[in-house]
Amino acid sequence: MPGNTITRLAGKALGAHFGTKLVKEKKSVQKYLGLGLVPQAGVAIGISIAVEAALPEIGAVIITIVLSSVIVYELVGPYLTKTALALAGEIPKKNMDKEGRPSFNF
User: Fold this and answer.
1) What does pTM read for this prediction?
2) Which residues, 6 or more positions from 62, have their beta carbon under 8 angstroms from its beta carbon?
3) CB 78 within 8 A of CB 102
4) What is the pLDDT of residues 44-76, one digit of tens each?
């Protein structure tokens, strides 16, 4: 599972980077959009349920792997998203701490 999680995260980051570079988006978006895409769980859960219905012999294993990944993403994702927004300059200075990091007082 950790390998799949890392591969998926890397794929999102690289895809976002090259896609934004291709359309000539500003540098801050090119650099940090991938981090902002981490917490995307709904589609993965839906697809795993569809796979379970289509392939019941391996469905339980698929759902276990997907839900484990979703838990990791949903724990780490909001932090990475807010960090990416702060690094890209999309969060107002008033929401930053003294060191210039985003304040996590939601």
Assistant:
1) 0.48
2) 48, 51, 52, 55
3) no
4) 788 888 888 999 899 889 889 888 888 887 888
